[in-house]
Amino acid sequence: MTVRHSAGVGAALSAATVLTLSGCAFNGVNSLPLPGTVGHGPGATVYHVEIANVGTLESNSPVMMNDVVVGSVGAMTLRDQHADVEVRLQSGANVPANVVATVGQTSLLGSQHLALDPPPGQPPAGHIAPGSTIALNQSSTYPSTEQTLSSLSAVVNGGGLGQVGDIVHNFNAALSGRQDAIRDLITRLDKFVGVLDRQRGDLIASIDALNRLAGTFSGQHEVITETLRTLPSALDVLLAEKPRIITALDKLRAFSNTATTLINDTQADLVKNLQNLQPTVRALADAGPGIIDGLMYATVFPYGQNVIDRGLKGDYMNLFAVADLTVPRLKRGLFLGTRWGADGAVLAPAPGDPGYEWYYTNNPLGAPLAVPPEGTEFVPPPPPAGPPVILPGGPVPSAAAPPSTTPLGAPPPNGMPAPSASVPTEPPNEDLPLPSANDGGR
Questions:
Q1: Averaged over 307-314, what is the pLDDT?
Q2: What global pTM score does this model have?
Q3: What whole-number distance in Å separates Cα of residue 87 and Cα of residue 61?
Q4: Separation CA 195–CA 203 (nearest Å)
Q5: How many CA atoms lie within 13 A of 303 on its CB side?
Q6: In 3D, which of 131, 139, 144 has the Cα closest to residue 52?
Q7: Could you tell me which residues come within 8 angstroms of residue 90 by beta carbon, excluding any fewer than 6 positions away?
Q8: Which of 94, 54, 51, 52 is nearest to 71 (CA)?
């Protein structure tokens, strides 16, 4: 009975196994999670990675982050001409948002793994949620051992690797006996590179300036084109004037030689004159503000800037003046006292000259009421040398009788009343002779 019971249990297990295998597909041992693989415990997370070429990557291959195994590869399926790889990570493993999935080779025997690391030189940034898919543009595959050996074989056999020996031989022959020169060249080259490194900012600024200049030229493209189009005609004109230009340059050479000789001969005198001129130039520099004020006043003469600012209410004003620039008047006025002045003309005393105090009226307001000195005679002015001056719109002067020389104190002829003693009649000061010291001041 016991043997018969055991045979029945074995038959039942065999039948269950056959039924199970016939109802489900079996893809080998790697299709089942192997004991000891990472990423199958409680709290494990699942991600999907799209890879263009998985190479020899198999299920249960390790998944690494920073060269540490944190999970394993699950099922792999084909989707849209690329592989969709399921990745299972252990609890606490966070995939950064800037992750790059790379299929790499663990050993030379062909074992491969899947690395989930940020790009080289960048720190991890953020993380992606479990169940997310790493896109195809974030994955790559390292060359396998077979691809590396195949490429090396192409280089060795048909890539010109055999010519490396000839290159080394020729290079050795070129350097033989010139070791010191080569060392000196390397030293100078090191100094040159150091200078370039210290001038890096200036070089960058120069390149930026050239870039701006190129941009300016690009903006003036039409102008440059027109200039290049008209330049040949200008060159033709210069060619036609070539003899004259050569003659002018030759004359300029002669002038330069003469000027050089003159400067060499008069150098000492020129330096001395400049040294003597230095006080004058310094005085002009010291008087600079006054010169500026004078120039400002000269532009508004004779009114002055205050009159222009306060008296003029418009944009301009008119000034009408009559200037007597005849020779006799200039002799009696502007040229008086010089060799061009009138002969025998009396000079009015200047401030500080003897008689200046009594020659001019000290009290102009009381002059009309003052009684002239006794016996003062009227001295007529000299007759004008030319025709009388007629103002525009003014009356035509008539011929005047010769002035009387009767003393001011004498009675007038024919019983006419005497002139008022309070209104003295006297000529201008420049035509009045100087009184003697006994006359007293006016």
A1: 77
A2: 0.33
A3: 10
A4: 11
A5: 14
A6: 139
A7: 38, 39, 41, 43, 44, 70, 71
A8: 94
